[in-house]
Design brief:
The complex is a heterodimer.
Chain A lengths: L1 H7 L3 H7 L1 H9 L4 H14 L11 H4 L11 H6 L15 H17 L7 E5 L3 E8 L2 E9 L5 E8 L2 E9 L2 H12 L2
Antiparallel strand pairs in A: 1-2, 2-3, 3-4, 4-5
Helix pairs in contact in A: 7-8
Chain B lengths: L2 H12 L18 E6 L22 E7 L8 H12 L3 E8 H5 L7 E4 L4 E3 L2 E3 L5 E5 L4 H10 L1 E8 L2
The chains are: A alpha+beta, B alpha+beta.
Chain lengths: 184, 161
């Protein structure tokens, strides 16, 4: 099951590219036919073999792994146009999306048991990570800017607010704060 | 004041320069409701969520429509549909705030202004209407979360079809 969990995470594509996941599956776990086909599917997607005009192989179509979604939210963000929110929203810059992808990758690696956040672009050079507990936003991290990326954070843990005012985005400073939330 | 907030105020003041387009501004009483429209887009308000994501409220100048005793009559559904057509949106949803919450200094440091003036954009007149207002100032993560907490969801983004 651990292999499947890994495939379902956003780290899977990188691991697959490096050959590490496929290797570990082959060496240490019996590879079911579904698993083998799934790995092939991801590999094909990574190679861009699934062009819109090219139908999926029949055996791949039959698989269902809903946790894996292509294109990801980051891919969607890269396709946004000015005014995407119906008003006059700016398009998230390549640097901002890259910073958000880095943060998401680091969070997944550091805290694999943390629930997935909602990752949402905002209208004014913003990408937001939002974790909820009991239907309320308990941790929100905002990344801002076009070139020089800044961040802030707000968490409300059992009525105790934690704030980080807007500052330069530094992964090593932000992750410990998210750690506090992850282990609360 | 943050430069982004100054920029919004500069824009609001610039709208008052053409006397043909300027309307009289009204005081927004604490018991007024402020309606903000959300278009369904990019995970901003998913079907399984009771409220929009905080990021929806990230704009330094958040556009609202004011309903209250001293303002022209405001019928939400009719106004939503007219706004959807004006903005050429496929979907529209709505939340509302109480003016007293937006002004509450223990929650926010916002400025709530009546902004009914029409203005020119790309040589066309943009008609905002006599109920239009603006919640001005920076929406950091804390402010956005609190805006979600304060807002009352009314209509999910629904398609015109």
């Amino acid at each position: 099951m651990s292999s499947i969990a890994c495939v379902n995470s956003n780290r899977a594509p990188l691991a697959l590219l490096n050959g590490t996941l496929e290797g570990s599956v082959n060496m240490h776990n019996p590879v079911t036919e579904d698993m083998r086909l799934f790995v092939e599917k991801v590999k094909l997607q990574l190679r861009g073999a699934f062009a819109a005009s090219q139908p999926l192989p029949d055996d791949v179509k039959e698989l269902s792994y809903p946790e894996v979604s292509f294109p990801s939210i980051f891919s969607k963000m890269k396709q946004l146009e000015i005014g995407w929110d119906g008003y006059d929203a700016e398009v998230p810059s390549a640097q901002l999306i890259s910073a958000a992808e880095s943060l998401w990758s680091a969070v997944k690696d550091a805290f694999p048991n943390l629930p997935e956040p909602k990752i949402t672009p905002g209208p004014d050079e913003l990408i937001e990570f939002s974790w909820s507990k009991n239907g309320t936003n308990s941790l929100v991290v905002g990344l801002y800017g076009t070139e020089n990326i800044t961040c802030d954070m707000y968490a409300n843990l059992a009525g105790k607010p934690i704030r980080i005012e807007e500052r330069e985005f530094k992964m090593h400073e932000l992750l410990p704060q998210i750690y506090t939330y992850a282990h609360s | 004041m943050h430069s982004k907030c100054k920029s919004v105020f500069n824009e609001l003041n610039a709208r008052k320069t053409d006397s043909l387009l300027v309307r009289g501004e009204l005081e927004i009483a604490d018991d007024c409701y402020l309606y903000h429209y959300v278009t369904g887009n990019v995970e901003s308000w998913l079907p399984d969520e009771p409220k929009p994501q905080p990021a929806v409220f990230g704009r330094p100048g958040l556009s609202v429509f004011v309903a209250g005793s001293s303002f022209p009559k405001f019928e939400l559904i009719e106004h939503m549909e007219a706004f959807r057509v004006q903005m050429n949106w496929a979907q529209i949803g709505a939340v509302r705030f109480k003016a007293s919450d937006i002004r509450d200094p223990s929650l926010f440091e916002f400025h709530l202004v009546h902004d009914p003036h029409a203005f020119y954009r790309e040589e066309k007149i943009v008609e905002q209407g006599p109920n239009h207002g603006m919640i001005v100032c920076l929406k950091d993560s804390e402010a956005r979360v609190k805006l979600v907490q304060c807002c009352e969801p009314l209509e999910r983004p629904i398609s015109a079809d």
